[in-house]
Design a protein that fits this description.
This protein is α+β, with helices and mostly antiparallel strands and about 250 residues long. The protein has one domain. The strands form 2 sheets. Strands 1-11-12-10-8-14-13 form a 7-stranded mixed β-sheet, covered by helices on one side. The chain has a 7-stranded mixed β-sheet with strand order 7-6-5-4-3-2-9. The radius of gyration is 18 Å and the shape is globular. The two termini are about 30 Å apart.
Amino acid sequence: MREPVPAAPRLPVGGTLRFALGSADGPRSTVWSVVGRPKHDDVFVGPRDLMGRQKLTLHESATLRREPGTWRWAYTEEEAQRRGLPREVDRMLNRWDAPAPFTPGWLHAVTVTVPVSSVQADPYPIRRLNKGKTVSFYTPEPQTHTVKFEVVLRSPDAADITVGGVHAEVGRIALHGGGSVFVFARELTAVDGRAEAEMNHLREVARETMIRHIGSDEFHALDKHVGITRGRSPDNGRPMLRDLGDLR
């Protein structure tokens, strides 16, 4: 990352990390959030502007491997009500089995992938933040194709480790049960055009899906439509979220 990298905040229980590529008053990517809860070890992850409607929940039962469990991308209760879903209908859209720790007490939980080409030239203004709250913005090196924000969980009794290949620590949040959630950033350089070709294919699929869902006229009438995809890592099955940028 180019200097200055924002200072990595160490937040108390219930804190929220917000991060993006770009700048507050210029081109930028989607703003992403990692949210801790005040009285539980649940962790929420998702685009900041979407989390009132749907989000990824790393459920407490599986977060620190107390017992096997699943993580879910689901509508919020408010969004389910807005959509008229009956209360007995499951709000889940995707599910993942929580991955195993890569070393005792440490769990590689989620990857948020932000290609540099997903930075929007004319993004929506950032929603107002409460006093004292911030978004950390990162500027990749010129040769960087993609930045991966890695969400890592630490249990209360885990020994310290050294994490390699990290270009910046975005920050950390203390968890109610004594553990922590960390976010690290890694920059990747493309060796050929295949990575960007894959991203363009994903954007086209997302665009076509949206058009089928809402109709061509309504889609093209949108000021902008920012897309994301949800997938699964081939190494440990963790959730992988990708910022596709503006799909217009």
